[in-house]
Give the backbone structure.
Amino acid sequence: MTTPLLALQAGAPGTLVGSLSSYLVVSGVLFVLGVATILTRRNALYILMGTELILNAANINFVAFARFGGFGMDGQVMALIVIMLAAAEAAIALAIVLRIFHDFGSIDITRTDSLRD
Amino acid sequence: MDFMFVVFAALALVGGLVMAFHQSIVHSAFGLVASLFGVAGLYWTLGADFLGGLQVLIYVGGITVLLLFAVMLSTRDSTRMAFGRYVLVAPIIGLLGMFLFQVYQGVLQVVTELGSPPGEPEPTTQRFGELFLAREGYLLPFELVAVLLLLVLIGAVTVARRGHGAAGPRRESTT
Amino acid sequence: MPDPGQLVADGTLLAIGLGLFLVPLLAALVLIFFGRKLPRGGDWVAQTAIVSCAAAGVWLFGKVIVGHGDPGWHWWSHDAGLEWEWIAAGPLRFTVGLFFDNLSVIMVAMVTVVASCIFFFSAGYMHGDRDYPRFFAYLSYFCFAMMGLVVVDNLLFLFIFWELVGVGSYLLIGFFYDQVEPPKASLKAFMVNRVGDVLFLLGIILAWQLFGTLRYPELFERLAAGQFAALAPDHVLAGWDSQSLLTLSGILVFCGAVSKSAQLPLHTWLPDAMAGPTPVSALIHAATMVAAGVFMVGRMYPYFTPTALGVIASVGACTALVGATMGLVMWDIKKVLAYSTMSQLGFMMMGLGVGGYVAGLFHLITHAFFKACLFLGSGSVIHAVHSQDMRDMGSLRKKMPVTYATFLVSTLALAGVPMFAGYYSKDQIVANALAWGLTHGAAAFVPFVFGAVGAFMTTFYMFRLVFLTFHGAPADSHRYEHAHESPAVMALPLMVLATVAIFGGGTLNPLPHNEDLWFNRMVHQPASAAALGLGLASAHGGSAAAGEAAHGEVAGGEAAHGQAAHGEAAHGEVAHGEVAHGEPAHGAPAHGEPAQAAAGAQAHGEQAAAEHGDPWAHALHEAHYPALVVSLVAIVLGFLLARRMYLTHATDPAEVSARFGPMHRIISNKYYFDEFYARGVVGNLHRLNRGLAWFDKNLLDGLVNLMAWLCRGVAFFSGLFDTYVIDGLVNFWRGFTRGLASVLRLLQTGNARDYLTWSLVGAIILVFVLA
């Protein structure tokens, strides 16, 4: 299965830097978008989505450097582990969101302020 | 620039933008899906075939489905939710951008000095298997993550359960 | 020192010596603690104690005086190795032992016998008194102190017992403590004695500094050998020569006797002391305590330089006269006797001063007996008529025959009527005074004159007393009715004392030679300090002739010290000034003349004894009969005058006192001595005290208050500092913490987005830091 996908491989061997920096730019932008989402949205689910985006951006970094920085498989393994952890974290987060919904009647995080005086 | 790269990158970025700025949460969710697809594609262009596949399976297939279910279950009246007025965001994001830019610059320089040109892409699946089951590899993290997933499973069920949940019902505070 | 031989065993003398004062002390303690519980109040305890002392004293008297009869006998416990070390601190070493010689043996016998009589008399006199046991306790204590004074072997311990005797006097005078007069009188006695005692102590200290010892035998040895120690350069008297120092020391020591024996000017306490019970007056203020001063002068006789002796003689003579004058005008029977005692003590001192050592001391002994008898007799009278004022009495001889008889006998003895004991002693004194006048120039006759006038007055006032009390008509019939003779316990002691008053002379020969008198045989005059200059190491002892020769040495010694005599003259004037008398400094010119007379003779060494032994012995011999005649004339005149005024009433006493108006007033007021002391001395002392009190209160206390005020001020500022600075610091932190907290609290918005934001910011910062 993977062989045809490999055909999509970007960059000719030799054109190193530019390719890497493109990936880094992409991951950077994705990261910033993820942060923006977290900070600006009132819906708790947005926080989760933003977090996923951030994690993915980080993964791109890992894999890109693994490919272009000569780190072999380590980057990919790291990315895989991140994915697994992201899944776990998402499960918990959703459970929490459900709880919040149950307790506060809403998932608007501005409403979750029992601690406020 | 490579064509495939541009395609997938565009997908990821546009999806991200949609997710960040769209008013409807469902639209945002689908934007996220698209973005994740784009990221998967980017993995493929980087020669991480197995990883890309897993990305699609887990993220798109699992997480986003879960997310959409949650959206469905918890959004009551309107899916539209206004943005909160939040003054600090812009400066923070600006700072963040600058920071990242600086870091990347530095890293790039290091990498160009150290790095070796990428070799021929190889199928990575077998390699993953070898690494995750080798003692001198990543066996331990592998197993730990497995345990973690078990814990998470139990934990999520516990937290989300009605009645004997982690915390009792709380009265709504009037702001 | 002549070898004493073992006349009496060491152990015996030690036992007697210690017992004499320990037994009465024991009796006193028993009576103090258990007196009330004993039957009859315990008077038998005291009486047993004193009688046993008297027995010992009389036994010793019999053995030493009657049996042995050696004038040079003496015993010092130190020689037998028996003495007690009291203080030993480097150069300061004070021991105490016992010293007996003829004089002290006689003294002991006299004191114990008189005391025994008085103890028995007191049993009757004080009968029924609520403090009966306490009286005998005090009497016993007094005997302890008196005995101690007599038997010790050094000046320091004599002084200690001297003070103890003073305490006894204080306790006994103030016996009736709840009356008005006795406490005042006892305090006055103590205070006046204090003055003399301080000077006495100074004299003792000087003696110790000069000779390094205070024990009689050693002291006189060193004195005779001229072993003066040099005074330290920073001593206040450092520049003085030895003779002057010795004179000064002697005069200071004599001052102790001035107060104790009620000599002028420290006599004021004696009349007031009559506020005590009559037996006390008899024992203490007639026979024993006041005699202690004379005894001490006698003991220390070798210590006195001619100048000092001159001072003693003058003081004694004046006291004799002044005392007699005051006895003339008193109406209180005890006061008359008190002034009589003062006068007689003056006689004794005069006797000692003019060189009649033997005479003065003999008079001491005889006087004790008849004066005690007189006092007890007066006590008997007072007991009978319940009054002390002679104007309430009269014709008591019919009612109280025994008292009258003994009283009359004692009066005759006191007056010096031949064949009675007092005659022998008093006659000698007058003779010595006359001899002194003959050998020391015109001014030296004053003691003789005073003595003669005094004798006249003595006879007069005594017979005045007798006539007023026992003769004539009863002044108060009521009292007369109730008067009765005293019981046997009181009458017997009177008789015992009167007997001695008659036979105490030891002979009935009206014209005795000195050798006939037992006292003269037993007690010989020691060489005086004037023998120093001739380097003669003559000591206590020798025959009568040697004693008189030693007196010649006195004159020779004065001659040899031509320059020193000048110094003495100067000191004589100074000394007289100290005595505060208008008395002409007869000592000074007296010393000058023989110096001039003998300077030509250039007397030196042993030759002086031969050449100058004559004047004194000669003068004494010459003076003997004239003095006798003068005495007898004085007595007869006195008797006749008294008879005329108080028996036959040919002359009215009131008229006489009116004629001598101002003089009479002065004498009646005791020469205003008391007023002078009260205003002059005490008043100024009070003024000084007030000044010092003011100083203390305002300045010293002011200083203290100032300090306190300063402390308060400092404390106030410290408090301010504490409140504003320290507390300010604390409060600042409180405010700061609160402010910080209220700021930080704002982070806790409860808003999840805020938390997210802050965690992101924190993460960024962290990465910045770590990168």
Notes: Chain A touches chain C at residues 35, 38-39, 42, 44, 47, 109-110, 112-116 (CB under 8 Å). The radius of gyration of chain A is 19 Å.
